[in-house]
Amino acid sequence: MMELDGVTHTYDTAPVVEDLSLSVESGEVVAIIGPSGVGKTTLLRILALFIEPQTGTIRFGDTDVWGCSDGERLALRRRIGMVFQEASLFDATVGRNVEYGLKVRRSWRDRLSDGLSEVLRSNGTPETVEEALGVVGLGEQLDQHAKSLSGGEAQRVSFARALAYDPDVLLLDEPTSDLDPRNTAVIEEAVAEARNRGIGVVIATHDMHQAERVADRVAVLLDREITEVGPTDTVFESPADERTAKFIDGELVY
Amino acid sequence: MTVIAGAVPIVSLPAFPFEPQYVWSIIDVSLYVSGLAIVFSTAVSLPVALLLGFTEFRGKQFLQAIINTGMGFPSVVVGLLVLFAVSNQGPLGGLDLVFTREAMIMSQFVLATPAITAISLAAVSGVEENVRDAAHVLGGTRVDVALVTIKEARYGIATAILAGFGRAISEVGSVLIVGGNIASADGVSKTRTLTTAIQLEARQGRYETAMVLGGILLVIVLLINAVVVRLGEGGVMQ
Ligand SMILES: Nc1ncnc2c1ncn2[C@@H]1O[C@H](COP(=O)(O)OP(=O)(O)OP(=O)(O)O)[C@@H](O)[C@H]1O
Ligand SMILES: [Mg+2]
After folding, report:
1. Domain B19-56+66-237 is of which CATH architecture?
2. What distance in angstroms lies between residue A135's CA and the mean position of ligand 1's atoms?
3. What is the pTM for the complete model shown?
4. What is the mean pLDDT of residues B48-54?
5. Which of A88, A212, A224, B17 is a plausible cystine mate for B134, CB 3.0–4.6 Å?
């Protein structure tokens, strides 16, 4: 469904990622594993159409995302959800946060009239918002202010916020790196739920056990390249690349 | 002692039977002029602050320099420039704006805009990159990202607007020059503001009226400061 082909990206001088190729299909979970600073976030930001890489193509379905019009790209962007590594909730209630993606997809006219009627009487919450919060077990916290959430709850709200508008691709950047086991389990269950809904999920993680638990396929990112990509079992049990094997055995220290 | 005692009857002379109306019309002019100036200033300052904070363009440093200089601009000089602009020889001479509220709005706009822009810039620059990125990745357009930024920085922006209003309403130099401090014969202010009225009344020895006007101005400014402080606390509390 979404595909990177020969992608190279340079921030300042040296390329951070070089000649990457990777795809994700609907209903599939792809884990990107690799040491810190290797370019996982960069790769996800390229997939999220945040950064235009210097070389290579990105296709969404049959469309070259950097070869089409701004309007088309916006439409494609709106089929992608992303959860960042660090908290990024708006200074508003949980409900408002999760509703945001739905709001920006409405016409300005509707948004204006919604805004006006909100001043007069409070509007109800869309069903999809409550439903998305339910997936991460926060259905009750709709009216709580985002700033008063714990780190784990905040990350779960971020997940619900990306899920609420039913994206085709969901990008998760180390969503559980700062979380305790319970919150981690909730997020991992939510990943499984997204997969069941036919969403293509790409999850960056430095936790190989997490990759084993959630992913259908694993891509190993080392030294600017994807050194290995394949079904989870194959990559972990019989990696073809020597560097990958060392990394997985924990011998390659970064 | 005798001098002061002698002055008291003059002060309390019921020389102005129309005084309440006079005072109300002055408050009216002050709020109207400073209020509208601040509305226009804000409408210009917010987009400029967002541009300065988040985009690169030619002339950015120049604009930044103008804003920094503008904050320290003496109000009499601004008044002089605006007076020249609206005078017969000036570029806006055809509009016939000498000694009008419109000219006063223009000069207060010039005075308030740099300050509002600078404080708003500090406020929007404090919005976390992540939050702006979130608005984008959740499907927001540039306008949506800008709106989220403004919403996140709302306390700082409100502080900027109030500070600008405070500067405008307590400023005397430019409104005196471009407005002319005019009141009609029946005691209704045309271009007389609280500040210009205070200096006139004091100069003419009508201390009582001057004090009343001064008190009103003080209350307005203190109220604004109280709101700014509350907003500051709200901003810190998060
Ligand atoms: N905006 C940027 N400008 C310049 N260099 C950057 C930028 N973002 C990232 N980098 C550099 O690119 C490299 C890859 O960073 P990236 O954040 O993609 O790594 P990561 O795999 O996500 O790391 P981590 O696991 O610590 O999150 C790093 O060396 C980083 O310093
Ligand atoms: Mg990262």
Report:
1. Orthogonal Bundle (1.10)
2. 31
3. 0.87
4. 96
5. A88
